[in-house]
Amino acid sequence: MSKVIIYDTTLRDGAQGEGVFFSAEDKLRIVKKLDAIGLDYIEGGWPGSNPKDLEFYRAAAKINFRHAKLSAFGSTRRANNPPAEDKILGDLLKTNTPVVTIFGKSWDLHAREVLKVSLAENLQMIEDSIAYLRQNGREVVFDGEHFYDGYKADPDYALETLKAAVRGGANALVLCDTNGGTLPLEAVDIFKRIKKEFSLPIGIHFHNDSGTAVASSVMSVQSGAAQVQGTFNGYGERCGNANLTSIIPTLIIKLGYETTVGPNLHLLTEASRFVSELTNLQHDERQPYVGASAFAHKAGTHHDAIIKNPVTLEHIRPEHVGNERRFLLSDQAGRSTVLNKIKEFFPETKKEDPQVQKLTDNLKELENLGYQFEAAEASFDLVIKKAFNLYEKAFTLNGFRIIVEKRGDLPVLTEATIKVGVGNETEITAAEGEGPVNALDCAIRKALLRFYPEIADINLIDYKVRVLDENRGTAAKVRVLIQSADGKNSWGTVGVSENLIEASWEALVDSIEYGILYKNSDEETTKSNISSK
């Protein structure tokens, strides 16, 4: 198979997505991460649009790129501006990037009604803008903006815009479906017609407004596209851009194309999550290849099949893209699922063991009550340990009381008092908090700190409440999911009750119990490893 050029525009086109924001420092960190996985081109932004992008390009000039070429993005010159006096082109040259990507109007509608220029003037703007950048030593990629819509409206004129780019000396031509409305078969048909007209490399750039950007991109590569543009996680304006985290593994694993990402494909999931983190958006766990759900199995029959042969229900090996297989714990889980978890503690356990069936039945009953263990595996681990008497409770609750007081316009005051037993000792403690759950969390930690100093490292990092039977209004049962972390690891716990405080207490107790158990077992393992040496 021939080589495909991967061109990333996360930091420019992706940054135009709703809720997406990158600081200059964020961009620098992402550029290094994307370069490390082997991308060919990374577009850093539009230097004429804001000072932040100019700052980024100045700092990026100090990076020693291993794989990628950094590209600056902008438009053709303004009407009536000589190229040498045009600020847009001047700003592009100031970035000192080896590559410049400029877009020009390929749709006659835009030339007339947006730029307010004649069709002839638009062609001239494309040609001499590219020529000027080439004269200044830049590799130039020409993005034919709205090309597919332009071609459908006036194919001859759309073709002329590409010819103008060629006359200017463009190194590559890219056909853009800027509105995202072109469907795959139509896109491929147009691409094939254009490819016959030019010897230059031709790339594609699809938006996802019809939900087909990845399909159109992959099919265009199969039809001869030399370059594919897109963004990590599909970020972008409106419905986003073609998702490179889906396109890249599809081209490499499914179709056998050669790319510089190939040797580093196992870093793809890590890079995808890294971009999500710096974007400050929740990672889409249902993304193909790189989402946590991509190789997650819930039904009991699926678990059984996967354990026997992963090929039965997985289209690729998750480790190829740096992901991992997960067995979800649910009311659909059978003995194979529970057995898989039990074997982490008792490797010799057999599926026919009555304790396996007992735990399976218990799990189904708990989920019937509203418990959900898919995002609370720490709670499930405790269920198993309790069933096999693998640990003693770290503490017992003797009682707690929460007082919430509101006086006039003053902020609400919340105080929790708690009484716990640890061994033969009793501790009574009070603490204030931002709300009842926070006050209770502070109080329990304060009470246990002298017995278990390791909990000082444990923090609650996420708290979610889900109403389970909405038709009961304020009397409805709720499920509380808590995510905790100690700086090295994180774990989820769950609690269910008609009383929000009680549900929160259940999840808090599991969180602290698991944290103490994990810390102690981790220390014991470390001591054992040291003594064995």
CATH topology of the largest domain: TIM Barrel
The value of Rg in angstroms is 29 Å
Question: Helicity, in percent?
Answer: 25-40%
Query: Sheet with the most strands?
Result: 8 strands, parallel, barrel
* Contiguous uncertain segments of 5+ residues: 523-533
Shape: elongated
Give a short synopsis of this structure:
The chain is α/β, with parallel strands linked by helices.
Fill in the keyword field for this structure.
533 residues; alpha/beta; TIM Barrel; H-NS DNA Binding Protein; Double Stranded RNA Binding Domain; 3 domains; 8-stranded parallel barrel; 3-stranded antiparallel β-sheet; 17 helices; 16 strands; disordered C terminus
Description:
The protein has 533 residues and is α/β, with parallel strands linked by helices. The chain has 3 domains: 5-279, Aldolase class I (TIM Barrel, Alpha-Beta Barrel), CATH 3.20.20.70; 296-350, H-NS DNA Binding Protein (Irregular), CATH 4.10.430; 396-532, Alpha-isopropylmalate synthase LeuA, regulatory domain (Double Stranded RNA Binding Domain), CATH 3.30.160. The protein contains 17 helices and 16 strands. The chain has helices spanning 24-36, 51-60, 87-94, 108-113, 119-135, 147-153, 155-168, 184-195, 213-222, 244-254, 268-279, 300-308, 335-342, 354-368, 377-387, 436-448, 500-532, and strands spanning 5-8, 41-43, 69-75, 99-105, 139-145, 172-177, 202-206, 227-230, 296-297, 326-327, 396-405, 413-422, 425-433, 459-467, 478-485, 490-497. It is elongated, with a radius of gyration of 29 Å. The model is unreliable at 523-533 (pLDDT under 50).
